[in-house]
Fold this sequence. Notes:
The protein contains eleven helices and twelve strands. By secondary structure, the chain is an alpha/beta fold.
Amino acid sequence: MDVVVLSSGHGMPLIGFGTLTMPLPMHDVLTFAYLDAIEAGYRHFDTAAQYGTEEPLGQSIAEAMKRGLVESRDKFFITTKLWCTDAHPNLVVPALKNSLKRLGLEYVDLYLIHWPVRLKEGTEGINLKGKLLPFDIKGTWEAMEECSKLGLAKSIGVSNFGTKKLSQLLIHATIPPAVNQVEMNVAWQQEKLRTYCREKGIHVSGWSPLAANGAPWGSLAVMENPLLKEIAIAKGKTVAQVALRWIYEQGSSIIVKSSNKERMRGNLQILGWELSQDDLERMKLQIPQRRGCAGEIFIAEDGPYKSVDELWDGDA
């Protein structure tokens, strides 16, 4: 599988398997699904403290090595994320240690700040009135750097950060973020943000690469797009493969997710062929752009972000 070398010097497989599932199935169901993904060829897995999937993912990694499907831990690339209730300088290292305990690992390959948001400790649910606190970018990033220095995370980065927040972080950073994981697909192409990250040496990783059809924020903007259907027929590929290939050709990595074995394998089959310049031009000009997940949950009159534009730094 193709690998990108991050600014940290570590290689990351360009196609990762996402583990966010709603509602959350029983752990053994997830463990078997992740084992199927490992058998299909995935070695990069993306989880988060908030997903509730760290434990079953850790069990599947242990089982895969026990069965001889993968020879050693270093053949995996594991990403997890710091949740907003722990996005405080004093809580970052303990939060990662808790994630590692659930994963049954000594280190993760990539640790991300999940959102540029801080919530009061113990906050649960979606009613965040009175629970949104100012986010200390400088202090929180210093604690992320400590995770790196302690060897608990080989690379560190962020998720859902816009250009202004990245520039604020970079002013203080001694270790720059290796990755910014954001919503990215042909219906939300993130050109401004990708250009900024490329200039700063930050690798962009795309979540929701097929517009998360089936998720609460999802849509059919990718899977039912007539232009993508036309290109897919001409290429003898699926719409999903064309959409994923587009992200790959932008130089970004992709977090895919499927519990269907055939689709798991199909999502890996985006190498060895390419989109034409005409295809790329039409995809850039003809597909309407709309953010799928606006993060409205974090917008509040009494919080740091009063509008969706403030949360996303006006990037489009």
